[in-house]
Amino acid sequence: MFYPTYALCLMPYAIRLEKKVFFPVTSPQYHIPTLAPKLLTMKPYLQADAYLHGASQVLAKLNRAFVAQQPDDCHTNLRYKNSEKRIYGRRIMVPDAGLQFVPSIHLPTMKLEMVHPTTKSIVASLSMAGKPISEFNDELAAWLKEHTLETLIFRENMHYDIPDYGIESYRALTNEELTEWHEGRKQANELLDALATKLAQTDKKSRIWPHHFDTGIYVKLESGVGIGAGFAMKDKYCNEPYFYLAVYSDEHEFPSDTKLTHGLWVSDERFNGAVIAFPSNHVEEFFAEVLTAYGLT
Q1: In the chain, domain spans
Q2: What is the side-by-side order of every strand in the sheet holding 207-209?
């Protein structure tokens, strides 16, 4: 059974709504929370999310091929720059060619642009929209080879799988897709960056992880407690995009018996934490309430 958009996360055991009330998933009762400002419909957002998940793999591949490998795979992750409407990869150095750049996708034009890390000038620009993926990859490989970069690793599949979105050619985003995706990820950056600063007094910025395409942070407190929070694509935990927070500690029990005003607890073999469906005006309260439940305020 499906509930109206925005109403809730769909879970197999219970639903927690904005009114501190539990209903089983078969109940016809629900409460629709106030919509987050500037985001009035989810369809364009979901379309953009799926498309950009696939398109951003080119940045992940460049990171994997030309950035020093890290045990937690963070060398492959990305950052959405709100002010530029641009998804960035990691800085790539090419000493033999006297070249350095950060690969990026400029969303308004759907161009892969190599941006100089200090001057911010565009080192190279390759149009993606309207090109079959195979044709674009050939064009990019030729540019890499021209600048003494090995293309073999770049052409290999990533070490993880993503859903098959049926994307054979790149395209431009519609105005609605660009506006709504930008607003969603901009809010995610702002809320998660503020949370990281509050928890650990760090200027660490949220990153997009290309495997699941979630915007996330991980903070380790002086006590050794780890806190992960993020903004995820819709999946089995929630029928809409959602914010999540989880605590990693042997000293703090999972407080699933504590009632949440906003959001709900989730526990399975993959994840123990809390989630709240997007859009919502209560994400900050949700973060605070979950941390309080863990005794971490």
Answers
A1: 15-41+176-293, 47-155
A2: 207-209, 214-220, 226-232, 242-248, 272-277, 264-267
